[in-house]
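Model: Ready when you are.
Researcher: Fold this.
Model:
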Amino acid sequence: MAEPKNEEFLDDIEQAEAEEQAIAEEEILDSDAEIEALRAERDALQDKFMRALADAENARKRSEKDRREAENYGGSKLARDMLPVYDNMKRAVEAATDEQKEISAALIEGVQLTMRELLNVFSKHGITLISPEIGDRFDPQQHEAMFEAPVPGTKAGEIIQISAEGFMLHDRILRPAQVGVSSNQG
């Protein structure tokens, strides 16, 4: 009768080993599942990190662009408000007759010096003059047609009169040159 106990004992050992192996396999499965869960979490966090990094880089670029634009174009309202000052000074010099220029030479010269200084300040801040000539071709990107008239000896689209010079601020139109344009058809 000693043998049945051995067989039971062996069966118990085999059952214990099978249970241990099942537990070990379950632990391995749990461990694999845990590893997969950790990998998925890592991948999700890495994706979030890369998106946050890209967002930060885009924000940096956007703020740099905004800073450049503010630096280049921030004074455009003031500059636009100063254009009539230039126009009025130019009209004053052009309106003076030769007799008035002789009598008030110092005054006229002072106005001309002030105009040159104003243009120097404009230039320093990226403002350039758009000064078309009579006979130039009308360019809607730089000129504003104030009127059209048929003028003998001109072609359609030629500038026949300049009412006011225009100005650019860096690469943007601050004010287009105001011109009259020929409407001749031949």
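Researcher: Now this one.
Model:
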Amino acid sequence: MILESAILHGFEALSEVPSEQLTWLYNECSLLELSDGQLLCSPEEELTGTYFIFSGSCAVCRYQAGIKHEIGVLYSGEITGYLPYSRSYRTSVHIFAKERVKVLVLPLSKTTDMIASHYELTQALVHVMCNRIRYMTSFQLQNEKMTALGKLSAGITHEINNPAAANVRGAAEILNYLRSIPSDIGTLTNRLREDKKRETVVLKLKELEDKVEDERSISLKERTVLELGITEWLEDEGQEDCDELAEKFAEFGVGVDGLKDLSAHFVGNDLCWVLNWIGAFLEAQRTALNIRGASRRISELVQSVKSYTHMDRGTDRQFVDLHSSIMNALMLLEHKLKRLNISFIEDFGLDIPEICAFVGKLNQVWTNLIDNALDAMELTKNGVLSIITRLDKEEVTITIKDNGTGIPEDIRTLIFDPFFTTKEIGKGTGIGLEIVNMIIAQHSGSMEVASVPGNTSFTVRLPIENKQI
């Protein structure tokens, strides 16, 4: 039996375990043989024991969106399955044989005896568990970062694409207007030959400039009334096919009262031409303003990304405006609010001071909590996201609320556990809230959660005076 148990001496993790303990281990194990592709364990079934692979190799796989991804390989001499003092009796991955594999299996029923009587063996297996946790945590943290980066980059790309496309369209429209100027110069000179006519047009342009910059939205009813009024007036002046011209001025909120005085100086084709020219000039101005607005939006997004990633500063603590930090994270998720048609309520306390914090890490807190809230409202009609900040003695409280599906009471205590997630495979990694908890702890803060269907809130408490770590 000593000779047979020598198989276990080949395991690096067991090299310091006394021979008599390895003999006990070998005697208590059963032999499991797997063919290529056969499953050793999976998240769907409880582990049957501790697995000692002494021949062949196994693929460690994770499914995302129904697609199997190999994330590692277990070779001969490695140990997996249930390990002493672990609270989990299920694995978070699928393990398949890559070839013909032989495994020694220590049944779960023998774990208690091992812990009670075989200290060095237990110690060795606990060390294996620590290494496994370290590896899986590192992998999951990297995966979480890539997932978060993917979400943010998709949103930022979408948000930047809209104003960028608007700029392209606007530039094309202005180019068309500019190209028409040479041919208009002669006509404009002839029609505005008299000083009074020139003065009238200049004054009208100045009068209507305010209309161009007015961002007040005009209702469909108001626009219809303005269009009808201009159309009827132009028809009375002998103009035909006036609908398009009337629509152009109505869009700026200009009615017949704002144009009627032109008929005192222009009649017939002159009136029609001048109105079209003024309309084109106003449209060019509006397009230029739209380009300016879209460019500002791109600039704001870039600035939000810069602030969010804290690119221009070191990794030390900095004094941070919590409201700016929250709004930067919210801006990067704005595409999701729009897609889910979610309303946002901002209730910020005016007396919130700056706090000393790891800015980049704090941004991760808001991103995770807001993103989770949005996911919870995905199937909710009239979703509402609320963010409330208050000064409470020596602490600042930040509450993020949603009216989504809520967190069932039986799992509420588990949501901060590593790798626990209620999201479908490929959508959640189960470490977002663990990271949040860890970052808040680094800031000497705390977090509370309250949830019933239709009302879930995460409240973060951060001390105003933080001790340096």
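Researcher: Key takeaway?
Model: Confidence is low (pLDDT under 50) at residues 424-431.
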